[in-house]
Amino acid sequence: MSYLELAGLQKRYRDSVAVDDVALSVEKGEAVALLGPSGCGKTTTLRMLAGLIDPDAGSIRLDGAEITRQPAHKRNMGYVFQSYALFPHLSVARNVGFGLEERRVPRPETARRVEEALGMVRLSGLEGRRPRELSGGQQQRVALARALVIRPSVLLLDESLSNLDAKLRDAMRHEIRDIQRSLGITTLFVTHDQVEALTMCDRIAVMKRGRIEQIGTPEDIYERPATRFVADFVGRANVLPAMRNGAGAISVWGVTLPATAPADGEVDVFVRPQRIRLAASGEPSGEGMVQLTGRVLRSVFVGDHVEVIVEGAGGQLSVEMQSGTKPPAAGTEVAVLWQAGDTLLFPREAT
Amino acid sequence: MTAGSRLPWLVVPAALLLLAVYVWPTLGLFRTAFNEVGPTGAMIEAWSLKTTGEVLADSFTIELTLNSLWLSLSATLIALCMAYPVSLFLFRTQSRFRGLLAVIAIMPMLVSGVVRVFGWLAILGDRGLVNSLAQWLGLISTPMRLVFNWTGVTIGLAESIMPYMILALLAGFGRLDRTLEEAARSLGCTPLRTFLRVTLPLSLPALALAAGLGFVLSMSAYITPKLLGGGRVFVLATEIFEQATTNTNWPVAAVLAIYTLVLLLALLMFSNVAARRLQR
Q1: Strand, coil or helix: what is B142?
Q2: Which letter does DSSP use for residue A309 in this model?
Q3: Contact, B220 vs B237, CB < 8 A?
Q4: ipTM value for the complex
Q5: In this complex, is the C-beta atom of B183 within 8 Å of any C-beta atom belonging to chain A?
Q6: All domains of chain B in start order, with CATH
Q7: CATH 2.40.50.140 is right for the domain spanning A238-347
């Protein structure tokens, strides 16, 4: 049995189901992301874990003990809120020491642990400040220190980086990941940001409309998405409508693919733009490659890569080329190549 | 024409009205305060501080002041204890009836003070609801005196200032945030500890604001002390009215009015400073 076990967790609101039959096992020391678009139930799941809302059904077990109905203040979960939720009437030190004071930890030990926690998030010297005198990034660190100092059973982070600017967010991602790893603290992140999920976690649970669509390592999720939704939500993908011929073979832009469709019905082909290579038209394709032909429509310099839009017989697709390489001029006939193994097939969704 | 140059014209009607119905009479009040009262009770035009001196030296003035302060304090505290939970609920509720509930909470403001007093007489009088019920239950044999004394006035006054205090609290709850309470819960606070460590400290500015308002309203209330006091309750407001109408002793009424005004201004400034201090 895992350290943290969610089973059949459900939360209904008047006219909708926010969380539906969520099951998740988290090992001790593991970092798991709940990833999904807004309204997918990821925050509701996290809040049920913290005891801030009661589930309608299902169970939560922590270290073998049932905690489904345990009140929030007895759960010892470190919760970092999206808005940080620092107490405006208390100093930084009192904010961080808040949970220790509630636990009646002796004063000298509280002082020592607060100092240690502030050192860990690199905020030493700001003990006497009020939260509103701090920058967003500093407030975020105080919130993290406040959650960590109580040595929580599980650390819960609710969109904790979404209020920071891009550069700070990058830095904090690594910092939080380092702290999480060095303390070996079991962590659940809620995020709608796939980069956050991919870089900060051991495993990702992708959620959609209250259900978990797929659970796996970042590589699994990215390389082997189980559903069309996961392929679409995590990373970018070209979606090419496929034709099915009599023998069950699949063709795109008039080219037959070395793959067979798993089920009946219409299917779409997904290919990641960075897995596609452009070559001169007419160049012979290698073994196990899919080759389409098209004409370059335009190319856009994005900074870390160049996006090339190619138009072919069945529509457009986007190719990511390394920055610094010279993209072919608009109007050039090109061959579009990718490894057959990089092809993903999903049933077309009814629109 | 810019908005800046247009604005002053928009306040002209209100300014003129205030000048006519407030500033001018107040100046008249100050003027009257310098007049003297002759042995016959007639007003003598003068520029002297004789009346002021007499009023301030009168032990009855001290008694009236203490009465007013005590009544206002108790009515404010009672009203605050009732208004705070109501306002907290209204501030937080997700109910779609929130607007309706807020209107109900401040509904008493829409009823005339006189009508409210008669309502209280029906509830607190010798044959009122409370006494009838207590007697029927056998708790008491003779009716309790709940009106025409300080008890009745305090109850009535607390009720009449409550809607204003609810509004003041709702306006002052700016920093109160449900997430902060959740943070406290996640850090190990029981609901009671959460209230004591987070909710209450963060509502202090609102409480100070509401208390200041309730106190000022109580100090200047006339109808409730007059009607529910049954002639046994003497406060500054009732005395000013008595002097101005029954005794037609305008200089004394004027001095008492200015005295009350100064007292209220001082209290308002104090409550403002306190609220600002707590806001930090």
Answers
A1: coil
A2: E
A3: yes
A4: 0.84
A5: yes
A6: 60-279 (1.10.3720.10)
A7: yes
